[in-house]
Amino acid sequence: MNVLVLRRWSRVRTHLVAPAIGLLCVLVSVESGGFVANPSFVRLAFAACLGALVVGLGLRAPKPVLYGMIVWLAALGLTRRLISHGFAGPGQMDPLLLVEPLMLVILLVVAADHGAFKLRTRLGTTITVFIGLLVLGALNPLQGSLFAGLSSLIFFVPLAAFWIGRAMSDQTLKRALLVYAVCAIPAALYGLLQISSGFPSWDQAWIDAQGYTALQVGSATRPFSSFSSAAEYATFLSLGIIIWMWLGRRALRPVSLAALALLGISVFYQSSRGSVVAICAAVALVAGAKRGLPFFASVAVGVALLASIPAIAKHFEPSSYGSSNTAQLTQHEVQGLANPFDSKQSSATAHLSLLIGGVQSAFRNPLGSGISAVTIAGSKFGATASASSETDPSNAAIALGLPGLIAYVVLLVLAIGNAYRLAQRTRDPLALTALGVLVVLVPQWLNGGQYAAAFVPWLVLGWVDARTARAATDEEELEPETAVQPAAPVVRPRPRLVPQPKLEPRRWELWRLERLTDLDRTADAEQAFLRRYFLVVLRSYVSYDGRLPLEFDGLVREEFGPLLGDA
Asked: Do 196 and 148 share a structural domain?
């Protein structure tokens, strides 16, 4: 009886959903047409169309939303400039910035359905506490504007990617990172075009209207490609280098080498000394993990490599520079690396001073100044203080005070420790890449203004957390089997007895059962429906690793026995 009711409801729901989606699309199209007629509403119409596409596609096929989000964020800055140049500026609030949070929310719902919140780990608890502090920081009365605090939360939405990464398979994460690597190539080419041939009209208009001091190097302007800032462009290139370096297969080795050469040249001419330092640190730690070195030994190797950068830069420094854009950018890069503590040629001492001052503020103001003090939303919506220090530890101290600083330090130690141990133990290319991504982004995990990179460390960190917990669970399950048993006496088997195979209980993967059901062409319609209904019921019992408890082995074999073979 229940099966018949479910089948009828399924048919009714199918007939109702299609007209509802069609009506929604018609309404969105009509409203979008009205918006486009007014140039000031073009951004809102464009964001609404993308939002409708994300909602419609995300719940049914979340992977394309993930890959599409990477491409969208890589082109977000260029898209905003093109719309501003052709129609109208964004005003105080740009609705295009809401597309990424919507995508993350959709992916988070899917991840929750796959058990992302069921896993309990120290790292997950620490991140939950840190997010709670961020919410309290948005309500901090010292920031002067409640709206400024609440609007600043949008820059911390990328932290939700931690739970998305927990539910992500190795193959999905690998593909997502490769999408990043591929997107870095056209981004690098566009950045080199800006240097060699000048900025297109839409980019030049943005420089004239929104340009900031850090863009200028003498009379030259740093490239920023398709991104919202030069710093975001440099971070994206650094990510691309790490991914191509450790995920490039042997079959793609020539492509990887060509991509690394292109991205290396682009990072150099982007003239960001911090990116060079971060890449060197990441390479040192990943190489140490791959060779099985202890963590502190790898840190020592990294420190030695960083200490040698000034000598290497001085050795290759040319005797004179020209006056072209590339010559000025080269001079800025080489002289800064060769003299890192000379305040006239490098900004390292200024960044260090900001870091120390931010950390000290946690002791002067233990409750912090609110999260609007370290985001651009604060300056737009009336916050009384704007004191961003450009690095995560000091920003956490300024915004959240002493509790935020402590929580961030604990989070950082657990995160890097877990990632390094996983890479050291498995030496898997994906685990090594994950470690490199976390290290190269480590000063900017909380920088939501770098839209294309803000969610990446948290996505990778969630995958590392789930993979580490899964390995620990597997070891616990295997421990009784691997215990040393007393040697049994040798007994010659009787020739007439045929031993029957004994099936050991196992934890079945739900995705495997779903795949076997989809591929089965022998079942009739009613049997196929019952199996799909049974799979829906089983979803409530799936653990964080996508597998069912051992207690369900009998039920699975009874219902899916013909499809399981000799498993």
From this structure: yes
DSSP notation for 99-155: HHHHHHHHHHHHHHHTTTTT---HHHHHHHHHHHHHHHHHT-GGGS-HHHHHHHGGG
Place of tokens 């920003």: 395
Instruction: Indicate the Cα dihedral angle 520, 524, 530, 532, nearest 10°.
Output: 30
Domain hosting residue 526, numbered range: 510-564
Q: Which of 447, 473, 499 is the last residue of a domain?
A: 473
HEC per residue, 212-263: CHHHEECCEECCCCCCCCHHHHHHHHHHHHHHHHHHCCHHHHHHHHHHHHHH
The torsion of the CA quartet 371, 376, 380, 382, rounded to 10 degrees, works out to 30
CA dist 27 and 29 (Å) reads 5
pLDDT in tens, 341-378: 887 877 888 888 888 888 888 898 898 888 888 888 76
Q: Is residue 21 part of a domain?
A: no
Contact 368, 399 (CB under 8 A): yes
pLDDT recorded at residue 9: 43
Q: What is the tally of structural domains in the chain?
A: 2
My answer on whether 239 and 331 are in the same domain is: yes
Asked if 85 and 204 touch (Cβ cutoff 8 Å), the reply is: no
- Whole-number Å distance between alpha carbons of 165 and 169: 8
Provide mean pLDDT across the span 517-532. Answer: 76
Q: Give the whole-angstrom CA distance, residue 355 versus residue 66.
A: 34
Residues 107 and 196 in one domain: yes
pLDDT over 80 (residue 236)? yes
In a domain, 200, yes or no: yes
- Residue finishing a domain among 473, 499, 527: 473
Structural contact between residues 85 and 140, judged by C-beta atoms closer than 8 angstroms:
no
Q: Please indicate, yes or no, if residue 383 is contained in any of the structural domains.
A: yes
What is the spatial distance between Cα 393 and Cα 359, in angstroms, rounded to a whole number?
7
- 3 state SS of 364: helix
| 509, pLDDT greater than 60 | yes
Residues 103 and 223 in one domain: yes
Amino acid 332: pLDDT: 84
Both 516 and 402 in one domain: the answer is no
* Contact (CB, 8 A) for 270 and 332: no
* Closest C-alpha among 416, 408, 474, 469 to residue 440: 416
Question: Does 95 fall in a domain?
Answer: yes
Looking at the fold, whether 242 and 290 belong to one and the same domain comes out as yes
DSSP state of 167: T
Statement to judge: residues 417 and 559 lie in one domain: no
Mean pLDDT of the chain: 82
CA distance 300 to 303: 5
